[in-house]
Amino acid sequence: MLTVFGSVALDTIRTPSRTLRNALGGAATYAAVSASFFERPGLIAVIGHDFPKKYQAILERFVNTRGVVHASGRTFRYDGSYDSTLSSRKTNKTELNVLGGFKPIVPEQYRKSEFVYLANNDPAQNTKIIGEFDRVKFSMCDTIDFWISTKRSDVIKMMGVVDSVVINDEEARLLTKTHNLIKAAKKIMGWGTRFVIIKKGEHGSLLFYDDVVFPSPAFSLENIVDPTGAGDSFAGGMVGYLASRNSTKLSAIREAAIYGNVMGSFAVERYGMAGLVNLKRSQILERFRRYKKMVKF
Ligand code: AMP
Fold it and tell me: Cα–Cα–Cα angle for 173, 177, 181, nearest 5°?
């Protein structure tokens, strides 16, 4: 079983071609929906009184929502703008709202989860919640510039209690204060995690463990409209695939990184969640096959 914990959001996303307002977003939303194509996850999150019913219906379609708490304040909100190349994003505003004082509880039904993904969220909450599962076999976490700037030592602590860290290149540099990504990954592994996956946007990802680096290119795409949630979809695909195989073997983890790239590629082709919610499993398998052909030499 797989549990995903993290933000569920109302996003304002400004791209050069379109601005989305109050779109369904959040790191846990992207990750859980992405994972659901491999195994239906349990979601733990908090939403406010302003969270639209149609978004709740989307969550219910893809995930178990027993762990979604309805609080009386406003839902977590994120506002970000992309530059004209879509490769760099600026955060305009982060409103924690109900996420601020959230005291997450793991529902009884989820406690036996062997796979746990701690999506972007308050790192102190993430660290606390991982201890509430009975028999975690593989855990993974992510973080974002906001938490690195406001709670760096909690982020480092969180990275010591999980099996793997998935993080994008800019954030890895910001967190470790190191430019070289190999040095950055080694530093993160030194904090206690066994696997580090550094995502490099359109350039794919680097998976590090022991003395090994396993690079994988992104699935090459000509048309990208909105990169929001690509990283979360990557992580959700990875952990969802591992949960569905119930495996933490190195070969499965390497294969999972490829599924991560494939899921990230679907997320960026459409605005907001549209790339994921309209997806069929057969398209994922087809793209995985094409990916295999693409990298064969
Ligand atoms: P990504 O594009 O993969 O970095 O993820 C974007 C998602 O992360 C958006 O849908 C946001 O709602 C969510 N997000 C942005 N900032 C934060 C934050 N400080 N904490 C939790 N989630 C966040």
Answer: 40
